[in-house]
Design brief:
21% strand, 23 strands, TIM Barrel, 6-stranded parallel beta sheet, 7-stranded antiparallel beta sheet, 474 residues, globular
Length: 474
Amino acid sequence: MQYCLGGLDEPLCVTYRFGEIGPMIPLTSALLTDLYELAMAHAYYQLGMQETAVFELFARRLPPERRFLIAAGLAQIVEYLEGLRFGGDDLSYLKESQSFPDDFLDHLAKLRFTGSLYAMQEGTPFFADEPILRVTAPMLEAQLIESRILNLAHFQTVIASKAARYMLAAGGRRLVDFGMRRAHGAEAALLAARAAYLVGFDATATVEAGRLFGIPLSGTMAHSFIEAHDHEEQALRNFLAVRPGDTTVLIDTYDTERAARRVVTLVHEREAGTRPGRIVGVRIDSGDLAAQARAVRRIFDSADCRDLQIILSGGLDEHRIERMLAAGTPVDAFGIGTNLDVSTDAPALDMAYKLQQYAGRARRKRSPGKATWPGCKQVFRAYDAGSAPIGDCIALVDEPIAGTPLLREIMRAGRRVTDLPQLPRIRDYCRAQLSTLPPPLRLLEEVDDAESLYRVRLSSGIRNLANSVDAFEE
């Protein structure tokens, strides 16, 4: 049986089968959920609780390392909702588990998402308590999709928010995603590449992400290629001989400055017409990157190779990039791996998908530290004369609030009602959003209260509704 996951244009498909070493993973099975979602769905079915529910997805608070977050993952969420169904293998497994009766399984066999979806455009900066999507659907459907929606939105939002910090630190230098080998699985590697490109990264080294999402590919060579040869110069010559196009080579396997001089020799040989390959840059991956970049830049410039670019990689976080550039390090691009694809400093967000209304009545959770605001909400953003955001208001959808509403209708009655922008358009939009953020939000230092840097207020309508819900529940 085949399952698909990916962008809206060209999904990634994998086959689910049992082999000698176990099953391949079904990336879009309806069983990719938590057991309690199915248990609650069964209870709603048995109790006849099929009135309309409204759920909203939001982050309760920002990590200390984040001054804002970037909404991401909407394209995959829409794909998931459009394709939601329980296949024969899914139902057979549930039947064998003996946890659910046949009439409920028959209901699941016919289940499709029939609700509506409102969401922020991918690439939009947002803040604590602001819903980035709202689902309105029969209770069973709205509940059942919780785990996978959170899974898709949370991961890409984590990575996009981290990538935004690299964008702010890099000062216009090229950024390439090198993180596949440290990502937490194949899906994570692909969606991390997408999220990073969405924010403004220039390329990825993950080839399948290039195929699926149209992201430009970029790569060099590993130290093993150099080590596999008896002499470094021969390794460089051999690589260029079989890679006749524009090529970037690695020069820090042994002695970085000596390798840089060898690169100069190869560049001049090509100018003399004795070699086909064209070296356009070098990558340095270890040691004191700033000092080595300065030394290599001097070697290149003194040899009239000023066009050769320097790419730095190797455990780079945004703070180290910021420090190197502040010190005048000559660098043209950065390769970013582990710290991006696992978002080392803030690998998880306190993100939640919570019931706000059921059967026409507002609902509210009042658990200590996890209380929610009731009702069907919208986020209104105010801008100054230069189109820079100056503050948000979280309000009920029918409140007359000044500002631009950020959640827009994406799906109605289970079908898409608007075309989602292609990834390059999302990327342009996100880069514009980052460039207009108030200056305090674009700084990288941690702060105790990030929300104080940008005003997000709660409307009087929501506060009044919360009071009335609390009074009713008492």
